[in-house]
Amino acid sequence: MSHLLVGLTGGIGSGKTRVSDMFAKLGVSVIDADILARDLVAPGMPALRAIEEKFGKHILDNSGMLNRRELREKVFSDPEQKHWLDNLLHPLIRQELVKQGKEAPSEYAILAVPLLVENQLNKLVDRTLVVDAEPQQQLKRVINRDDVSEEHVQSIISHQASRTERLAIADDVIDNNGELSQLQPQVQKLHEKYLKLAKISVKA
Ligand code: ATP
Question: Entry's HAMAP family (predicted)?
Answer without folding.
Answer: Dephospho_CoA_kinase
